[in-house]
Amino acid sequence: MSLLGIDVGTTGCKVIAFREDGEVLAQAYGEYPLIHPQPGWSELDSNVVWENVSNGIREVAAQTKSDPIEAISVASQGEAVTPVSGNYDALANAITTFDSRTTGICEEILQDISPLEVMQITGMPPSNIHTLAKLVWIQRNQPEIYKEVWKFFGFEDFVNFRLGVQPAVDYSLAARTMCFDIINKCWSEKMLGLADVDVSLLPDTVPSGTIIGEIGKKVAGELNLPSGVVVVAGGHDQPCGALGAGIIRGGELMDATGTVECIAPAFNEPVINQQMIDGNFACYPHVVDGLYVTLGFVSSGGVVLRWFRDTLAQAEVAQAAAEERDVYDILLEDIPDSPGTAMLLPHFTGSGTPHLDLESKGAIVGLTLSTTKGELVKAILEGISYEIKQNLTMLEDAGVEINEVRAIGGGAKSEKWLQLKADMFNKKVIALDISEGVCLGTAILSGTAIGKYSSIEEAVDLLVKPQKVYYPREEIAQQYDEKLKVYEQIYPALRDLNDQL
Q1: Element housing 17 (H / E)
Q2: Integer Cα distance of 364 and 368 in angstroms
Q3: Mean pLDDT of 356-383
Q4: Can you give the pTM of this predicted structure?
Q5: How far apart, in Å, are the Cα atoms of 367 and each of 381, 486, 497?
């Protein structure tokens, strides 16, 4: 028997079947285009998303006949919303996270409630990106659609609905709406009242790992699934990825390095205060019962290293092809061990947390005629890591305990980068050989729900294996603490200039 995990992202979806021991049996990937009907608008055709998801399910199911799928769980992007009619049709495209049409709506809501009270209820620093602002926009600008709405769905509950089971959303994804009470675990009458949204327009909420239904024969036949497959509540993609990285205790933190670098620490009690708001840090339910998570991120993570490869490393690309090696191994083999003199601000696509400044730009400072290519690569790794270090410091100052870092993604394959992080963060860094953490997290949820694992803890012990542990070197850690004081001055010094640019 196998467990099917589905990860519905912004531009594509992954469908992966895992055996009970964590081995990947089959996988499929489908891409779909973002739609931009007006400047600043960002939409997805939910029917096209479902078409890709269903094709992926059929493809994977066809390859797992000897290990038939027993349970399905879905992780998805947050904030996106699809209006669905009483005839079960999507009434319009889904409005995705970074869509600018909602600009100013949150500020209107804040005329009747303080930012701190919003966070005390919802765990979200007030923002126009959240679903609540999107519902208000539809209400005002598409009243004919709003009148026909039966339910507003995020992509987890939309896929569950199309699978033919109860339209339910888990607590972690519900929290991304900014209208879910994270303490009482229910939709907030206060927040919905401020937006004049009826609670009946939203799906039921359940804890992650809850069995929410069994797929009927008709849908199972259409998807090549065996009979009796159950659907288990999944979650927001980042907490699911954190579970896939083994983040099941307070004080543990996932560091996922990809195009974007994202951190997700877990903690035992809600941390809600002005410092969290100032850092744009949310506080919401983890997919692991009893824990909460927050997110910090660098918008331009590994993509900056890719920019360097494509723009300045043609010789290394040719060498890698000739020697059949990874070009990044070649680029990183000559970086110096000690902290560099050149510094890079990795705001190539704006900043992430804590500033969330989309107008900020990348910069390299401290260049001399003796600066080597290896030192530039080191500056890229350090710049991304300095950004994460600032997030870690702010989170700890706000009351979030962080004891160890679990590294996944492409950056977790570089020993030099992981040692750099251990030194700069002054934390133990554990490398994990996990490439599909989000889907693995959903598999852990579904496998535990149907009794394949006795507990989340047993599943993590079985499926999540540390590869190597990196410890901070005291002398270099002190050097990074001193250099951080310099790095922290770069963004403020360039902010006005970047606004002019």
Answers
A1: strand 12-19
A2: 11
A3: 95
A4: 0.93
A5: 16, 15, 19
Determine the average pLDDT of the residues in 169-178.
98
**Residue 409 burial (CB < 10 Å; 0-12/13-18/19+)?**
buried
DSSP state of 24: E
Task: Using alpha carbons, select from 17, 103, 15 the residue that is nearest to residue 55.
Answer: 15
Q: What is the pLDDT of residue 316?
A: 95
Phi, psi of 62 (to 5 degrees): -65, -25
Q: How far apart are CA 349 and CA 356, in angstroms?
A: 11
d(CA 275, CA 130): 20
| Sequence-separated (6 or more) residues with CB below 8 Å from residue 337 | none
User: Which tokens hold the place of 122?
Assistant: 């919802």
> Is residue 435 scored above 80 in pLDDT?
no
- Cα–Cα distance for residue pair 83/369, rounded to 1 Å: 58
- The residue type found at 20 is E
Spatial distance between the Cα atoms of 135 and 142, rounded to a whole number of angstroms:
10
pLDDT per residue over 439-486, tens digit each? 999 999 999 999 999 999 999 999 999 999 999 999 999 999 999 999
CA dist 147 and 312 (Å) reads: 55
Amino acid, res. 456? I
Residues 6+ apart with CB under 8 A from 470: 415, 418, 419, 421, 422, 428, 429, 430, 431
Strand, helix or coil for residue 206 = strand
Specify whether the CB–CB gap between 110 and 126 falls below 8 A: yes
**Of residues 265, 211, 259, 271, the one with CA closest to residue 238:** 265
- pLDDT in the model for residue 1: 87
Rounded to whole angstroms, how far apart are CA atoms 406 and 247? Answer: 8
Pull the structure tokens for residue 230.
């159950």
- Of residues 77, 277, 290, 79, the one with CA closest to residue 175: 79
Beta partners for residue 43, in sequence order: 35, 95
Structure tokens at 90: 């999507």
Q: Which residues lie closer than 8 Å to 448 by C-beta, 6 or more apart? A: 209, 454, 455, 456, 459
Q: What token pair was written down for 56?
A: 């992926």
pLDDT exceeds cutoff 90 at 411: no
